[in-house]
Amino acid sequence: MSAGRSRPTVSRVTTLATRLPATRSIDRACYLVAALLFASGLFHVGVQLVVGGPWDGPVSWRKPADFGVAFGLTLLAVTWASGFLPLSERVRRVVLTAFGAASVVEVVAISVQAWRGVPSHFNTTTPVDAAFAFSAAGGGAVIIASTVVLLRASFRHSSASPELRLALRVGFVSLLVALAVGAVMIAIGTTMARTVSLSAAYDAAVVLVPAHAAAMQGILVLPVFAWLVGFTRWTAATRFRVVAWGCAAYVACAIAFAVVA
Fold first, then answer.
1. Rounded distance, CA 213 to CA 190, Å?
2. Which UniProt keywords are given for this protein, alphabetically ordered (predicted)?
3. Which of 24, 41, 246, 252 could form a Cys-Cys staple with 69, CB 3.0–4.6 A?
């Protein structure tokens, strides 16, 4: 009897294991870049502990720390999640290459400016500062375009389970919302920097930071949550309901955090 009951379990685990996307050369490259970006963020936390200085404000070690960790985790999540999308090898390779390269540009621009001891965003005081500011803005535009491609692919039919498809859609929508909020922050800050002052630009843009941060987390947690739910013995309908409620809870928490924080 025990041997007879063990076969379905082994079969089910084997079947679920095949739901993992295949690892390709572009995946390995992106995972490596993601690890380096994440390590860069942790490194700047160490710099803060050793060197000291303000943790908040336009010139601080918090910015390269935040950007390194955030872009490292996001690139990791996007690379993994994109493996479940119905994309051709060529398109996926181009999209991930663009996303990864733009992520590096963002982190490098913010980090270099932190080491120079000058503000990164909205700072066009000198030609060098302007070059870094425009490079970061250009990288953001590339990331937005790449995310749009991935989001569109998530709404096409694929072999992923219904609950995973839902989580991918909500995750990429959430990421796009976060990027859109970031673009609005850049627009507001740039306008204020040109018409008022650089300090006023940061004060105006920082109001949207909670909304930007809250929306960034969807692509990190929802696809993984849905994938893990796939390992349960629940019925397909139950798995879908659990993931749907999880997505709804995340959206509600993100909105609440953006409003209250």
1. 20
2. Membrane, Transmembrane, Transmembrane helix
3. 41
pLDDT digits (tens, 9 = 90+) for 22-57: 668 999 999 999 999 999 999 999 999 998 888 887
Q: Are 219 and 169 in contact (CB under 8 A)?
A: no
> What is the torsional sign of CA 178, 250, 223, 25?
positive
CA distance 115 to 92: 34
DSSP state of 44: H
**Other Cβ atoms closer than 10 A to 260:** 7
Interatomic CA distance for residues 38 and 76, integer angstroms: 10
pTM as predicted? 0.89
Whether 163 shows a pLDDT value over 90: the answer reads: yes
The CA-atom distances, in angstroms, between 19 and each of 13, 75, 230 are 10, 20, 9
